[in-house]
Design brief:
With about 130 residues, this protein is α+β, with helices and mostly antiparallel strands. It has one domain (about 1-125): 60s Ribosomal Protein L30, Chain: A (2-Layer Sandwich), CATH 3.30.1330.40. It contains 2 helices and 6 strands; from the N terminus they run E-E-E-H-E-H-E-E. It has a 6-stranded mixed sheet. Helix 2 links the parallel strand 4 (about 70-80) and strand 5. The chain is globular, with a radius of gyration of 14 Å.
């Protein structure tokens, strides 16, 4: 069985997908981009500023289900420019300071709304 999750504290889906889905003891979070959940506009700034917003959005989605970053077991990071990896990684590392999840990171040609970073996550339900 699956359960669709949604919170108004994270950006609403901008297409035919859900913010997240609970299934099989896991929470699968859709990729988060640097949208301000109140305005649905991309936040101003560079890859660091966008990664901060992505992580805030992910935090809100996790919190809505009684979870936090320590429950995340896998992430996938999509970035526009691999030269930004170090700066993005620095922000990411602040949120996963202990027992970081497994991760993949890939450079992509383009992301929704031309953002610089998108991160999806899988968390273990409590």
């Amino acid at each position: 069985m699956k359960e669709i999750i949604s919170t108004d504290k994270a950006p609403a889906a901008i297409g035919p997908y859900s913010q997240g889905v609970k299934a099989g003891g896991f929470l699968f979070l859709s990729g988060q981009i640097a949208l301000d959940p109140k305005t649905m506009a991309v936040v101003e700034g560079d890859a660091v500023a966008q990664t901060e917003q992505v992580m805030k959005n992910m935090k809100e989605a996790l919190t809505s289900q009684g979870l936090d970053f320590s429950d995340v077991v896998k992430t996938t990071v999509f970035i526009k420019d691999m030269r930004e990896f170090g700066r993005i990684n620095e922000v990411y590392g602040r949120f996963f300071a202990k027992d970081a999840p497994a991760r993949s990171c890939v450079e992509v040609a383009r992301l929704p709304k031309d953002v610089l970073v998108e991160i999806e996550a899988i968390a273990l339900l409590k």
